[in-house]
From TrEMBL:
Native source organism of the sequence: Clostridium magnum DSM 2767
Annotated substrate binding sites: R94, R104, R133, D221
Co-factor note (free text): Binds 1 Mg(2+) or Mn(2+) ion per subunit.
Cross-referenced SMART domains: Iso_dh
The protein's required cofactors: Mn(2+); Mg(2+)
A GO biological process held by the record: L-leucine biosynthetic process
Pfam families per the UniProt record, alphabetical: Iso_dh
Residues binding Mg(2+), per UniProt: D221, D245, D249
EC number: 1.1.1.85
Name of the protein this chain belongs to: 3-isopropylmalate dehydrogenase
Complex formation: Homodimer.
Molecular function GO terms recorded: 3-isopropylmalate dehydrogenase activity; magnesium ion binding; NAD binding
PROSITE patterns referenced in this protein's UniProt entry, alphabetically: IDH_IMDH
Length: 354
């Protein structure tokens, strides 16, 4: 099982180190072997080679089943031009790996309910929603133009989707739902947008092959409201690129803790890129203050989606819960009466629970 490891910049390096500790614990328990190949990405790659993504990084990623990524960027490279910036490395690796489905869980652990802005009665025993966002189509990639008219301008961006693009991500989201609570909500604007009406047709057709999964539909404006009013009604939310961009940020804040949340970006087959949703956090880098749980939970997603190791994925999630149950907290999720531990110790303690 080959993993391309890209720690990147700032706290990326620190959190990746903890995730590897956890994978080593999984190796021990399951008598399996991961091959880790560490390569440069982002600012670290610019410093060493002049490019945010050297060819070697692309080659190693393409010969691996999974990419484990920390975070890229920092003030040192902020003045660099667009295609020489660390973020260019991130966009390129997503494109090169052909990942079209971005999976962003919004998980609120019952132990951390106080971190959410929502009321106790809305949260119940915690939250677990999975947003599946189409990543490489829609308005961000369709035709864009600006023309001069009447002394001013007229500009447009085009939402374009083909049957194939919708079909592949629909299958993806039904597969994901099968591993969860078997419910998919397609979020769109089918009362106004033709592209949304095509999404509905194609997704309904794909659903015929997944009769064990419930499918329902919701307009995006209503979904934005329902996420706050009654988030527990959702299991998997399937949506196009721009709606997913907005809703996944909204949903992540229901959980109140940036350092805790993982993500996976999947392509055809088992290929995937796994990374925490946070950035390189230059303000706390090198101080043993970063919370590695988002990266550790990303590794659980890697085992589930790229390596089909569901039991090991559940072990990692259970290890994080046990760690929290024992009263340990990172600085960012500190609560009165809890034991604060640094990045390294968090990694050690969670790995030891496996
Ligand atoms: P950020 O996510 O790095 O940090 C925002 C705040 O959250 C900071 O106060 C930080 O200390 C805190 N934080 C983030 N992750 C944490 C963790 N694991 N544990 C504890 N606290 C944590 O966002 P930013 O400050 O807007 O951006 C910093 C740099 O990261 C920029 O260069 C930006 O471009 C880059 N960035 C990269 C990615 C990525 O690699 N995917 C994503 C977002 C931002």
């Amino acid at each position: 099982m080959k993993i391309a490891v890209m720690p990147g910049d700032g706290i990326g390096k620190e959190v990746i180190k903890q995730a590897i500790k956890v994978l080593k614990a999984v190796e021990n328990k399951y008598k399996c072997k991961f091959e880790f190949n560490e390569v440069l990405l982002g600012g670290a790659a610019i410093d060493a080679t002049g490019s945010p993504i050297p060819q070697e990084t692309i080659d190693v990623a393409k010969s691996s089943q999974a990419v484990l990524l920390g975070a890229v960027g920092g003030p040192k490279w902020d003045h660099f031009p667009g295609d020489k910036r660390p973020e260019k490395g991130l966009l390129t690796i997503r494109k090169e790996m052909g990942v079209f489905a971005n999976l962003r869980p919004a998980i609120l652990f019952p132990q951390l309910k106080a971190a959410s802005n929502l009321k106790d009665e809305v949260l119940g025993d915690g939250l677990d929603i999975m947003i599946v966002r189409e990543l490489i189509g829609g308005a961000y990639f369709g035709e864009k133009k600006r023309v001069a008219v009447d002394g001013g301008y007229k500009a447009w961006d085009t939402i374009e989707y083909s049957t194939n693009e919708i079909e592949r991500i629909a299958k993806n989201s039904f597969e994901v739902a099968r591993r969860r609570n078997s419910k998919v909500t397609l979020v769109d604007k089918a009362n106004v947008l033709e592209s949304s009406r095509l999404w509905r047709e194609v997704v309904a057709k794909v659903a015929e092959d997944y009769s064990d999964v419930e499918l329902n539909y919701m307009y995006v404006d209503n979904a934005a409201m329902q996420l706050i009013r009654n988030p527990k009604q959702f299991d998997v939310i399937l949506t196009e690129n721009m709606f997913g961009d907005i809703l996944s940020d909204e949903a992540s804040m229901l959980t109140g803790s940036l350092g805790m949340l993982p993500s996976a970006s999947l392509g055809e087959g088992n290929v995937g890129i796994y990374e925490p949703i946070h950035g390189s956090a230059p303000d706390i880098a090198g101080q043993d203050k970063a919370n590695p749980i988002g990266t550790i939970m990303s590794v659980a997603m890697m085992l589930r989606y790229s390596f089909d190791m569901e039991d090991a994925a559940k072990d990692i999630e259970a290890a994080v819960l046990k760690f929290l149950d024992k009263g340990y907290r990172g600085l960012d999720i500190m609560q009165p009466g809890m034991k604060v531990v640094g990045t390294e110790e968090m990694g050690d303690l969670i790995a030891s629970e496996i």
